[in-house]
Structure formats: structure tokens, C-alpha cells
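Extended Data, panel c. Modelled sequence:
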Amino acid sequence: MSEQVGLPGTEGQLIDQANADESTVPSSISGILMRVLYRLLSLVPWGARGEIPVQCVFCRIARGDDPTSEIHYHDSQFVVISDIAPASTHHYLVIPKEHIRDVRCLDDRHIDMVRQMADHGRKVLELRGGKWDECRRGFHFPPFISVGHLHMHIISPESAMSKRNELTFRNDSYWFRSADAILEMLTRLQPTPSRLQTPSSDKNSTSMLAKLS
């Protein structure tokens, strides 16, 4: 079942871009073009779940089929690996083994999952000498994602990030939202019907942003 969804907005919320505060929109040409792009993307239907791509690299890593990946933690639900293009001294990806395409597929039933992702990221970061209070953590939004399988970035220290990486992972921008902002939005959603069904088995579940459109 396809759904129309809203878009990441401003002021720490995930909102329909059409309702964004005009005063927050960049005045530069690039900012205007970015706004137009996201208006167009808001018309694209996104389902809550899609078929698992045969070649999904993160699914292969989660199954243990990619010996080249540097795995720092794994259990029955998650795996934590190093990013192949680190944005700072420490850069890890926390990946759920369940194939969820991206952050726009989440709803209120994923709150625990996102919290666990942050917890596992913190443990790996601190075990490897990084500091949580100097960490940037969050998710990219389509189309600004490298792999179509949900993953949380754990980057530390922020002070060691280049200007380019600062832009790529800019908190609460059109393309990247902090884990805290995602959790805040999920906790404010109305409970999804059919609580007895798991997110993966409920094909009619409403995605996070679809509820806001």
C-alpha cells in the first residue's frame, strides 16, 4: 500500500514542507533549489515497507555474508560497523537486521528500536575511546541516503569534522535529522492501531511522515 508522506522540516519537527516557516528558508539560490526539490519529493508515494532488495549490502552484512566489513557489535537485532568513509575520528553505523528502507518508514512502534540503536552506538563509541557528549548521531532522509536500509550515524568528535562533513551531517537540516529529533517526533505520534501486530508484519501500518501530511 503506497502512501504520500510529508518531509523533514524545521524547528525540530518532521512536518509537511509546505507548512514550514518561511523565515527559516535559506535565501541563497542553492537553498531555493533545495526547497523546490523537497516540494517535488513530497509528491512521491512511499510505502511503509518494500520488498527486500536482493543486493542490499546491509542485509548481507547483517547475515554475516560480507567478510570485508569491520563489525564492532552484533546481536539478534542489530549490527554496528565502521563507516567506509568516516566523517571524524569515530564514525559507526548502527543497522537493524530487519530490512527497513529508511527513517520515513518508522512509526510510534519503532521508538524502542531507535533508542536501542542509540544505546548500541554509544557502547561501541565509548569502548573504542570516543565521547558521547561530543557525538553527532542521526539519520539521512531520501534521496540523500547511500544505502536503502535504515542506519544511524554515530560520529565523534564533532569538532574534527571537515566543513564538507559538517554540511553533509548538519543537524535538523532538510537531509539529516538528529536521533533525538526523530525520537521526539515518534513519541508525539498517535498510537498506531493493531498494537498486537509487529511493525514488520503490519503491511497497513502508517509511516511516521504519512501521518503528518
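Confidence is low (pLDDT under 50) at residues 1-27, 38-50, 200-206, 209-213. This feature is highlighted in the accompanying rendering.
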